[in-house]
Design a protein that fits this description.
This protein is of the alpha+beta class and 538 residues long. Helix content is 18%, strand content 42%. It has 3 helices and 26 strands. Strands 8, 9, 14, 15, 16, 17, 18, 21, 23 and 24 form a 10-stranded mixed sheet that branches. Strand 1 and strand 2 form a beta hairpin. The protein starts with 13 loop residues before the first strand and ends with a strand.
């Protein structure tokens, strides 16, 4: 049977992409002109990161019967050319080559100067040893020794100064080389060393034109939701975006973009289970006499939106990249327009949708965590679909004011965002503690820790400002999980009386303050522990 003929390479561009949480499903299309019989076609180039076992092909011909007999990815490696830049390279690449050459030459000069100084140090040591031995034998030559020592000292000073100047020059060249390398990385992409092509073996009963669709998975592509919230008076405009990164080695131009929260890793096999043995033992006498307790911190959502302190959520920086919070159900979003995504591995923002909603706001503060006042804005989700968790750029009429975080919000539910609040409030917090005991020794004696928290609130208003403004102040008290430790709020000593104390120990006050007004908030609570309690520290 004759070997099938290999036709010239046919382009196979990316036309649609479904971006997942940690990879992408790519769809490529091409129009093929087929001859009668069996033939081999090469299409591409395609990304060398394409996953071979995920390769799927569909071939549709209008006036003929055609099918794909074999489809495989073929990769080839072309090493980079070794040597200096050529005439076709950019001036930046030539500049980088000059700096690298200067650094290598300077390093060689530094090695020679260092070796020369080491020899001079050895010569100086030999001269001093000769002087000591000659003096001991009575063969003193002070004139010659003085000349030799002066000559060695002069040589050491000269070469030491040259070495210091060279070190400074090399440090400056290293900074320039690093800057040039960074500029080259920003301006140009490295030539591809590994390329891949799709080799097809096709059988057609007659000459025809066929439409080919190729689908496969590829790593090094991901997306995360991001938002932009614009607060204007009592209305908030929330714009949803998708931030995408892809370093697949090829650019995606004019692709239909779909974003999914599906996790392919969930289909993996569970790990093997191993035995976990539990044993019982008798408590010692010391353990029966004591109850070990410890204090721990837990983040709760009632101190402010997203479990963060008011005043800090608006400026929280996005550190490591978190996963996509979709509420446990796969969500699929579609970009409204074709997208262009260069394969440079950088973040690219794609607009998705937006809506406007009435917003209510309250000034709130948690002095234990921050001395700043935040404005917590609440609005309904009118997007028609759940809002995924993600960072939010906060914008007012004056412009960009900070960053916040939006938690997962179901359709129609209320969302919260913490904007930087008014800067005319000043808060000062102080804590006083006292320890005592109650009861008789051995007859229910308990230690008592009394803590008094005072928060001084001032409103610094501009001249002529009128009208009261309410500030929501939150403090917290410990919550005990063991019967041997009891926490009591001394409500009669709190001034003013708290408006609410929830199950997590968060105490809330509503403080109306006129312009220039001042208030002192006092919170008093006590922690009672029995004599058996150990490990409780304030």
């Amino acid at each position: 049977m004759p070997t099938p003929e290999v036709h010239p390479t046919t382009p196979l561009p990316v036309t649609a992409v479904t971006c997942l949480e940690d990879r992408a499903h790519v769809e490529r299309t091409a129009t093929l002109t087929l001859a009668a019989g069996q033939q081999r076609l090469r299409l591409g180039p395609v990304s060398p990161l394409a996953v071979d076992h995920s390769l799927r092909t569909e071939l549709a011909a209008a006036d003929a019967t055609a099918r794909v007999l074999d489809a495989r990815l073929t990769r080839s490696w072309t090493p980079r050319e070794v040597g200096p830049p050529g005439a076709g390279d950019s001036a930046l690449r030539h500049r980088l080559h000059e700096l690298e050459t200067a650094l290598r030459t300077g390093a060689q000069r530094r090695d020679r100067l260092t070796a020369r100084l080491a020899l001079l140090d050895q010569l100086d040591a030999d001269l001093l040893r000769e002087i000591g031995e000659g003096t001991g034998l009575g063969e003193a030559e002070p004139a010659r020794w003085s000349r030799e020592l002066d000559r060695v000292a002069e040589e050491q000073d000269t070469h030491g100064e040259r070495l210091r100047a060279l070190e400074a020059e090399l440090a400056e060249l290293a900074e320039q080389e690093q800057a040039a390398r960074q500029a080259l990385a920003d301006a140009e992409s490295q030539p591809r060393e590994l390329t891949a092509y799709l080799d097809l073996t096709v059988l057609a009963d007659r000459p025809a034109t066929a439409a080919l669709t190729v689908r496969h998975l590829t790593p090094c592509a991901l997306w995360r939701p991001a938002y932009r919230a614009v607060l204007a008076g009592k209305e908030l405009r929330l714009e949803s975006d998708a931030v995408l990164w892809q370093a697949t080695g090829e650019d995606w131009s004019g692709v239909r973009l779909t974003l999914s929260t599906a996790r392919s890793a969930l289909a993996a096999e569970p790990p093997l289970l191993v035995e976990d043995r539990l044993t019982l033992r008798e408590l010692s006498s010391a353990e029966r006499r004591t109850v070990e307790v410890e204090l721990r911190e837990e983040e709760i959502g009632t101190l402010g939106p997203d479990g963060t302190a008011p005043g800090t959520a608006a400026t929280a920086a996005a550190g490591d990249l978190p996963g996509v919070d979709d509420g446990g159900e796969v969500r699929v979003l579609t970009a409204p327009a074709p997208a262009n995504l260069p394969g440079d591995g950088r973040a690219h923002r794609i607009p998705l949708a937006g809506f406007s909603a009435p917003a209510g706001a309250e000034l709130t503060a948690a002095p234990e965590l921050s001395a700043l006042v935040s404005e917590v804005v609440r609005f309904g989700n009118l997007a028609g679909h759940p809002l995924l968790a993600g960072p939010v750029e906060l914008v007012r009429d004056s412009g960009y004011v900070g960053r916040g975080e939006l938690r997962f919000t179901a359709t129609g539910a209320t969302a919260e965002l913490a904007f930087p609040g008014a800067d005319d409030y000043r808060l000062f917090r102080e804590v006083a503690e006292s320890r005592s005991s109650s009861g008789l020794p051995g007859l229910g004696q308990r230690s008592v820790l009394t803590r008094t928290v005072r928060v001084y609130v001032s409103r610094l208003s501009a001249p002529g400002e009128q009208g009261e403004r309410s500030l929501t102040l939150r403090e917290r008290i410990p919550v005990s999980e063991v019967s041997a430790v009891e926490v009591r709020l001394r409500a009669q000593e709190c001034d003013p009386a708290p408006a609410e104390v929830d199950a997590e120990g968060v105490v809330r006050w509503e403080l109306p303050l006129p312009p220039g007004g001042r208030r002192t908030v006092t919170l008093v609570y006590e922690v009672l522990a029995s004599a058996k309690v150990a490990g409780l520290t304030a």
